[in-house]
Amino acid sequence: MYFLELMKVPRVESKLRVFSFKIQFGSQISEFRKSLNTVNSACNEVRNSLKLKEIMKKILYLGNTLNQGTARGSAIGFKLDSLLKLTDTRASTSKMTLMQYLCKVLAAKTPALVDFHLEFVSLEAATKIQLKSLAEEMQAIIKGLEKLKQELVASENDGPVSEVFRKTLKEFISVAETEVVSLTNLYSTVGRNADALALALYFGEDPALPDAHLSKLLQRS
Asked: How far apart, in Å, are the Cα atoms of 114 and each of 54, 83, 126, 146?
């Protein structure tokens, strides 16, 4: 009997998708907002870390020292992800990498900076979140809400059989729209903050440091 009545409902498959979206919406929004806040917190922690800024200044000074006398010896900035290159750069006469040398100098001369990583409470969790996945999730939520609106419009011609459905869906869409607008604004903010971390440019600086200059520096240490 239930299925016979169900068959009388226009576009029953579409309505079932509406119910599925409505049921999952709360938890989906909550988890997505949590991920956005995690990435946002990590960006703020990195950008506002005074200890990291001091370390970055020393790295810039070190790079300019190594490149002294060349066109790359007066850089005023570098890409944040270029820090990873420090572990790959070593002198031809030494097993010590530039990262190891930097850590050695920091530990000896400015030990207070060595624990800078303790300021990054959200960073580890943020590294497990891909920005591409966030973009896909945001798009899925927006498209899901759009399909709900389309079904609401289509159900206006269903007659009394969809009256309760239309009323419930209309109320839900009103609430969901507010949530999605808020979420979209947060997503845009997180995107700008994440992009801002990559805006410290080399301005023509080559991250590959000359072995000859690096050899002399490591020998002096």
From this structure: 11, 15, 21, 50
Residues 67-88: pLDDT tens digits? 776 666 666 666 777 777 778 7
**Domain 35-220 class?**
mainly alpha
Give the 3-state DSSP-derived string for 82-146, with helices as H, strands as E and coil as C. Answer: HHHHHHCCECCCCCCEHHHHHHHHHHHHCHHHCCHHHHCCCHHHHHCCCHHHHHHHHHHHHHHHH
Locate the domains of the chain by residue range: 35-220
pTM equals 0.76
Cβ-contact 169, 63 below 8 angstroms: no
Distance of alpha carbon 67 from alpha carbon 209, whole angstroms: 7
d(CA 186, CA 46): 18
Tokens of 136: 């896909």
Residues 217, 101: contact at Cβ < 8 Å? yes
* CA distance to 18, 139, 208, per residue, from 174 (Å): 14, 19, 55
